[in-house]
Design a protein that fits this description.
Elements lengths: L7 H4 L18 H13 L9 E5 L2 H11 L11 E5 L2 E5 L4 H10 L7 E10 L9 E10 L17 H13 L5 E8 L8 H10 L3 E3 L2 H10 L4 E9 L10 H29 L9
Parallel strand pairs: 1-3, 1-4, 4-8, 5-6, 6-7
Antiparallel strand pairs: 2-3, 4-7, 5-8
């Protein structure tokens, strides 16, 4: 009597069934979620990330990094594009404090040794001119996102050791920089608001952006060594200083190359010297 025909599905191991996959029963812990979501957002397996991370809001940074290192850009069909060369991965996570918090949470899946955000900001004081670099010593938490991580009275601070390494690298490039406090907010269109501008003058911040405070706070929360180097791209306190498509393109052409090179060199300094950066503890 002939044996019954066995289908491939029937003969396949039980573990290959979607019902029995690791995620079929749900993601129950934070660790499970971030390990699943970081590849989902980037298209990159966990083991293929570098252990030193550059964060950016702009695809141009990723394109330059990939071209300089002759590596592919990954995740073009995902929420976050990236490129990896050696021990450094650059990720374009998008714009705003919510996405900044998201990428910092997701990076706990790989426990990076250092994360450096290369962002653009608006200069609030006349001395911070377009093209200048700002190395923040603190940020004012005006964005609201960081309130989900810590009470309002907890200050938003970078890792001192990482900021020190960035400072050294800037000088190696024969550049100077401003330091001071950055005001971080969620609101994007405010340049017309005289009342808000008056408030900004009172708090004495040197610059304004949408990510720095969030990255400092989520770095602290997640025990990730975190630093920020900002490029002044506009001067929003005066009408002629408000960013336009033309002025932004001019900033990119003139200043982004150095900004990115300094970021890469800062992380390479840590890697080559074998420095261990432990995040600050209050």
């Amino acid at each position: 009597m002939p044996k019954p025909v066995t289908s491939a599905a029937a003969s396949a191991p039980r573990s290959s069934s979607p019902v029995n996959s690791p995620t079929a029963k749900g993601l129950k812990t934070r660790k499970q979620i971030v390990k699943n979501w970081l590849p989902r957002y980037t298209g990159v397996p966990l083991e293929e990330f570098g252990d030193h991370i550059l964060l950016t809001n702009f695809h141009r940074y990723v394109k330059l990094f990939a071209r300089w290192h002759r590596v592919p850009i990954r995740g073009k069909d995902k929420a976050m594009t990236s490129a990896t060369a050696g021990r450094i991965t650059i990720i374009n996570f998008g714009m705003g404090s919510a996405t900044a918090a998201t990428v910092m949470d997701l990076l706990t899946a790989i426990s990076p040794k250092a994360v450096l955000f290369l962002g653009k900001c608006g200069g609030l004081k006349h001395r911070a001119e377009i093209g200048d670099l700002i190395l923040p010593i603190a940020a004012i938490r005006g964005e609201g996102t960081s309130d989900d991580y810590f009470p309002p009275e907890v200050p938003a601070l970078p890792s001192f050791a990482l900021q020190k390494a960035i400072s050294t690298t800037i000088r190696d490039f024969a550049r100077d920089y401003w330091t001071g406090t950055v005001y971080t907010m969620n609101r994007r269109v405010w340049e017309h608001d005289a009342k808000f501008k008056s408030y900004l003058k009172k708090i004495r911040a040197i610059a304004i952006d949408m990510e720095t405070a969030t990255i400092f706070m989520t770095g602290f929360f997640n025990e990730i060594t975190t630093g920020v180097l900002l490029l002044v791209s506009d001067q929003p306190m005066i009408p002629e200083g408000v960013k336009t498509a033309e002025s932004d393109a001019e900033v990119d052409d003139a200043y982004v190359t150095d900004h990115l090179k300094i970021g890469i060199a800062s992380l390479n300094q840590l890697i080559n010297q074998g420095l261990t950066l432990k995040h600050l503890k209050f």
